[in-house]
Structure formats: C-alpha cells, structure tokens
Design goal:
Strand order of the largest sheet: 1-2-4-3-5-6
Radius of gyration: 21 Å
Number of strands: 6
GO molecular function, one term: epoxide hydrolase activity
Helix content: 40-55%
Family: Belongs to the AB hydrolase superfamily. Epoxide hydrolase family.
Strand content: 5-15%
Shape: flat
Distance between the termini: 40 Å
Protein name: Epoxide hydrolase 4 isoform X2
Keywords: Hydrolase, Membrane, Transmembrane, Transmembrane helix
Length: 251
C-alpha cells in the first residue's frame, strides 16, 4: 500500500501528460482539417488567386532607414550560421538585446531602437530562421537548446558578458530560458506576451481553453502543411495574423 502511495504522484503525472499530448495531436488533426477545407474553398473560388505569387525584387525602403541603426552580420563559429542584426547607439554602452516573436523580425523593434540608443547599445536581432539570418533546413536545428545557445554566442560575438534582455512572444520564451539557464548574462529581463514557462505549462494543463488559444503551436508541428497554408494568396495570412483571436495567449 505504501509503495502504491509513492507511485501514485508519478502515475498521475504520466496520465496527465498522456491526456495533454492526446489533446495536442487531436487538435493538430482538427486544425489540419479546418485549414484543408479553407484551402479547398479558396481553390474553388479562384485557383489562380490562391496560388498567385508577386515577385518582390527589392525590400521595402523603410528597412533601410538610417535612423534605425546599422545593418550588421556576425557568423557564429560553432554553428556556422550567419546572423543579421540592426544596431543603434554607441559601442561600449550597456547592451540592450531585443528578441522578436513570430512571424516577425528585427523591424518589430524600430521604435525601441530609436528610443533607447542614447543610453544603450541597442541590438535588434533576426533570430535563427528569420529575416536575413541563416535558416537551417532541418527541424532539429530549431530545438530550444539551439536557440538558447544562439543568444549566448551572439552575446560573446558582440563582446559583452551581460545585457538588458527584452523578448516578445516566442522571443519572450527564449528570453525566459536564457535568464533561467544563464542568469549571469542578464542584467534586467523584460518579457512581453509570454508567461514564465513553468506557469504556462501548469496553466495549460489546468485550463484546456488555453490549448485552443495556443492552437497554432501545435498546428505548426505538422510537416510542410502550415508553411504551404501561409504561402497561399501571396502570403495574405501574414497580413492579418496579428488580429487572429488565437494569437491571444490568454494568460
């Protein structure tokens, strides 16, 4: 009986985990079915429009606005990846490192680059797979360990041992994990629109409604289909992504 009592907590954790992942995979299937119906509807209305792509030979002029800072590149020795970032403010000032969310890139921080450059060396990074930063093709190259190591290596490459770290959305998750794994690297931590990972995990297990608000996490686990869906109608989905209700984390 005592042995059963000792095993019960672990058994409950296992059961909860199985239920959680069952919900995840079921929801992935539902999302895929819903998006497939949306695709078929779009093809039925106008196949030419559905698969239309506009050639964009030059980036928007706003990305080259000199008031935002200087475009720089750094190649990380261990991973071999080249990272792009925009830097504003004098070298030698305290570093403020900005990590964007999805589906964004360094330009999300344009206002902060202008605002804080008088007091900091402000660096807005294109994370791995975004913007002008290299994008490895294999899924294992985007594990959290890789993303955390990227930030540590970037800091070293910039010649800093610590920084004011600011993250938004997925960048906020990386910021939390950097602060947890390498607290000595973080002078101040500011996270926007992403709760502490432990709080988020516990909350989503206790509140299934949060699973639906965060459904895109799990939809993105399906191979190739999410990328294809985002590309239809000349990537129109990106224009309205920020206003979609499931973007609200709800916490």
């Amino acid at each position: 009986m005592a042995r059963l009592r000792d095993c019960l907590p672990r058994l409950m954790v296992t059961i909860r985990s199985l239920l959680f992942w069952s919900l995840v995979y079921c929801y992935c299937g539902l999302c895929a079915s819903a998006y497939l119906l949306k695709l078929l509807w779009s093809i039925g209305k106008g196949p030419t429009q559905t698969f239309r792509r506009v050639a964009r030979e030059h980036p928007p002029a706003c990305l080259n606005d000199p008031s935002l800072g200087t475009h720089c590149y750094v190649r990380i020795k261990d991973s071999g990846l080249r990272f792009h970032y925009v830097a504003a403010g004098e070298r030698g000032k305290p570093l403020m490192l900005l990590l964007h969310g999805f589906p964004e890139f360094w330009y999300s921080w344009r206002h902060q680059l202008r605002e804080f450059k008088s007091e900091y060396r402000v660096v807005a990074l294109d994370l791995r797979g975004y913007g002008e930063t290299d994008a490895p093709i294999h899924r294992e190259n985007y594990k959290l360990d890789c993303l955390i190591t990227d930030i540590k290596d970037i800091l070293d490459s910039l010649g800093y041992s610590k920084c004011v770290l600011i993250g938004h959305d997925w960048g906020g998750m990386i910021a939390w994990l950097i602060a947890i794994c390498y607290p000595e690297m973080v002078m101040k931590l500011i996270v926007i629109n992403f709760p502490h990972p432990n709080v988020f995990t516990e909350y989503i297990l206790r509140h299934p409604a949060q699973l639906f608000k965060s459904s895109y996490y799990y939809f993105f686990q399906i191979p190739w289909f999410p990328e294809f869906m985002f590309s239809i109608n000349d990537f129109k989905a990106y224009l309205s992504l920020e206003s979609i209700p499931w973007r609200d984390e709800g916490i």
